[in-house]
Structures are given as structure tokens and as C-alpha cells.
Automatic annotation (TrEMBL):
GO terms for molecular function: transferase activity. It comes from the Bacteria. Keywords: Transferase. The keyword Transferase applies. The keyword Transferase applies. The lineage of its organism: Bacteria, Pseudomonadati, Pseudomonadota, Alphaproteobacteria, Sphingomonadales. This is CaiB/BaiF CoA transferase family protein.
Length: 408
């Protein structure tokens, strides 16, 4: 299995040490690895728990094939003194360390930022945690769903009040973890830019990302509206509280199609198409705020029209009139979408255990310096010998001794 970094990749030459588990930190480092960074993932002897998540084939996680891709897996027992010594030696050869333990856990293990920076003074350390590294809630337990709740998202992912008596629904993926990972990757890039621009003596050496804060930062006008008006933003189901018409509408074959026609020209096109040209420019419908006030009537009118067509017929009609629309995609729709396929966003990735695995492509797309899926999620400890030999210069005898001692 290849493990060399492509010279064409934009982050070629960047080395990252991941001491992470579950989703947030590994998602951050996967983004960097996709763009060419050499990510060395430290795993305990039992492995990252995500190796056992999702659908399994013969005891192997299909999700792991994508979640762990482009990384080099090294097993090290961090409870052992020799294991911690190896991590410090690896940190000395890395630009970045990414971790997502509870605040203070690395320090208690003898691997706090001060210790890591004795190995490399200009090392950048990214901490991802539930609530951040300080404050009264810093040491509370948290996962992505807790971040989504405290960040305000979980309240909004629901139908309007009074419509149903069920718990607010989850987005469907670990969105809190993933957004925190995105912010961490962005923070690392800013710190690296400052460090290298300042000749290795930049000030931004610590990235502190909280799941809760990552979600709160995505909540658009929720806080400004509450602060100025005392208004608590309410869930809106499939619609958008600030734009109309924009919702999911039913079709004759039992599917749903999203239609976004909230500008004046688009609204005019849609009303002409639905057979209601009398609403174009009419009082109550001539501006977006007016349409928002009459959204229930508009959604009912549009829904009656969409029910006359199959999803394919409806999207064809909307496309012909250049009105933004889409079916609500399932996995099967994503896998066959011609735009995704043309841009390599859906691709078959060779995997030694599965033959091949359908995976999402690399984001962002950088035509001049593209990222790549160089290999699928590795076996546990697959690269231990390679990394310790290549990066630290250990010889086979030393590696075997570490294995006998249970360090590797």
C-alpha cells in the first residue's frame, strides 16, 4: 500500500501528529491528509473506536475506510513511559499536533503543550473539546450531539411548534464534530501561515476549538435577533424563516423536491409555471418579507401544483425555467449524480479488505494542486514500523524490543 506524499498536493511537506479518537480531531486531520499532509495517527492498542462504527463487513467498518484514509496508523500505548517518549520524539518531527481529549488530559499523561514544545518550540497544538480549554464548563463531558444542543442547532432541527410532539431530530450525521474539525483545520492553517511568515517565530501556537462554540458560530441571526428584539428563533421545519418560497414540496410519486424561488425574478417564473401569474407583483407577494408573511398560503399553493408531477418530471420543468431545485437526495442519488461523478466527488477507492469502497472526494477542489485519496483507512498499527524507521530512525532490533515490552 502506498504511503508517499504526492509532490502535487498543496500540503505536501506538512507533517501532522494526531492524538485523536472518535470524530472531531480525526475529521480535521483527514481534511489535511486529503490535501497531502503526512498525518501520523497515534492509536491505542484497542484502536480508534470508530473502527467499530457503522455498517461492518466481516468485522471491518466501511466508514473507517474513508474516515481513516490517507493517514499512517501507529499503535503506541500512551500509558507507558516509553510510549510517551516515542510520541515526544515524533512531535519533534511534526509541524502540528491535533488532539481531542478532555482539557488537561494530555498534561496528566505527561504530554501537555509545554512538554511537547520542549521537543519542538514552534509546534502548533490544536485542542478540540466540548466546551473549550477554560471556563466553568471546560471539564464537562461532551460529544457532538451535546455541542449541537448547546450551540442552538438541535432546537431548530424540528417542525414548527405545535406540529408534532416528538423530540427535535438529529441532523443525521455528526455535524457538530465535523464543523469543529473544520474550524480546527482552518485555525491550523492560520497559525502555520503566521509561523512561517514570521520566520518560525509566530505567536499563534495554540488552537482552542469547542464543539459548542463551533455550532453557535453557525447560527446566523439567532443571537442578534434575540439581543435586539428578545426574539427566540423557532424551528421552521423544511422551510426557511427568512425566505419564501423555499421549501420541500411533495410529488405524485411520493418523493420531495426542494424549490428555492425567493427572489423576485424566480418567484415570477415559478408563479407563471404554476399557473398563478396574478400573484406576480401583487400586494402581499411583491417582496421577500411580504412572501414570508404569507408563506403558509404559498407553500400550500405550490404543494398542490407539485403533486401533479413525478419528481423527475417536476425537476425537469423547473430546470427548463432555471429555477433552483432538487430532489431530496438519498445515498443512491448522490452515488449516481453526474455532477458529482464528473468532478470526482463520488469515487471508487481501492481497499484491500473490500476490493473497493465508494467514498466522497476531496474538498476543497484545487485544480492546480489537487488532493487525492492515496489509500483507504489503514489497519491498526499498519505503519508503526515504517514511521518509526523513517521518521525516528529506529532499527529493527529497537522496534522488536518495543513490541515485546507492549509499547507498540
Amino acid at each position: 500500500m502506498p504511503s508517499k506524499i504526492s509532490l502535487k498536493s498543496v500540503l505536501s511537506g506538512l507533517r501532522v501528529l494526531e492524538i485523536g479518537h472518535f470524530v472531531a480531531a480525526p475529521f480535521c486531520t483527514r481534511l489535511l491528509a486529503d490535501l497531502g499532509a503526512d498525518v501520523i495517527k497515534i492509536e491505542p492498542p484497542a484502536g480508534d473506536p470508530v473502527r467499530q462504527w457503522g455498517e461492518m463487513v466481516e468485522g471491518r467498518s466501511l466508514w473507517w475506510s474513508m474516515h481513516g484514509r490517507n493517514k499512517r496508523s501507529v499503535v503506541i500505548d500512551l500509558k507507558s513511559e516509553k510510549g510517551r517518549e516515542i510520541v515526544l520524539r515524533l512531535a519533534a518531527e511534526c509541524d502540528v499536533v491535533v488532539e481531542n481529549f478532555r482539557p488537561g488530559q494530555l498534561t496528566r499523561m505527561g504530554l501537555g503543550p509545554d512538554v511537547l514544545r520542549k521537543a519542538r518550540p514552534d509546534l502548533i497544538v490544536a485542542h478540540i473539546s466540548g466546551y473549550g480549554q477554560d471556563g466553568p464548563g471546560a471539564h464537562r463531558a461532551a460529544f457532538g450531539v451535546i455541542g449541537e444542543a448547546i450551540g442552538g442547532l438541535r432546537y431548530l432541527t424540528n417542525h414548527a411548534p405545535g406540529m408534532i410532539d416528538l423530540p427535535p431530530v438529529r441532523v443525521g450525521v455528526s455535524i457538530g464534530d465535523s464543523i469543529a474539525g473544520l474550524y480546527a483545520a482552518f485555525g491550523l492553517m492560520t497559525a502555520l501561515w503566521q509561523r512561517d511568515r514570521a520566520g518560525g517565530d509566530g505567536q499563534a501556537r495554540t488552537i482552542d476549538v469547542a464543539l459548542t462554540e463551533s455550532m453557535l458560530s453557525m447560527m446566523e441571526g439567532m443571537l442578534p435577533e434575540y439581543g435586539a428584539l428578545g426574539k427566540i428563533k423557532q424551528p421552521g421545519g423544511g422551510g426557511i424563516s427568512t425566505a419564501a418560497p423555499s421549501n420541500a414540496y411533495p410529488t405524485a410519486d411520493g418523493e420531495w423536491v426542494l424549490i428555492a424561488a425567493n427572489s423576485e425574478p424566480l418567484f415570477a417564473k415559478l408563479m407563471a409555471l404554476t399557473g398563478h401569474p396574478e400573484l406576480i407583483g401583487a400586494p402581499g407577494y411583491s417582496s421577500n418579507p411580504e412572501r414570508v408573511a404569507n408563506v403558509e398560503f404559498l407553500d400550500r399553493l405550490i404543494g398542490e401544483w407539485t403533486r401533479e408531477f413525478s419528481a423527475d418530471d417536476l425537476t425537469t420543468r423547473l430546470d427548463e425555467n432555471d429555477i433552483p431545485n432538487s430532489k431530496v437526495y438519498t445515498a443512491a442519488d448522490c452515488a449516481s449524480d453526474p455532477q458529482y461523478l464528473a468532478r470526482g466527488m463520488v469515487r471508487d477507492v481501492p481497499d484491500r479488505h473490500f476490493g473497493k469502497v465508494l467514498q466522497a472526494g476531496v474538498v476543497p477542489h484545487i485544480p492546480e494542486s489537487p488532493g487525492a485519496v492515496r489509500w483507504a483507512g489503514p489497519d491498526l498499527g499498519e505503519h508503526s514500523r515504517e514511521v518509526l524507521t523513517e521518521v525516528l530512525g529506529l532499527d529493527p532490533v529497537e522496534i522488536e524490543e518495543l513490541k515485546r515490552d507492549g509499547v507498540l
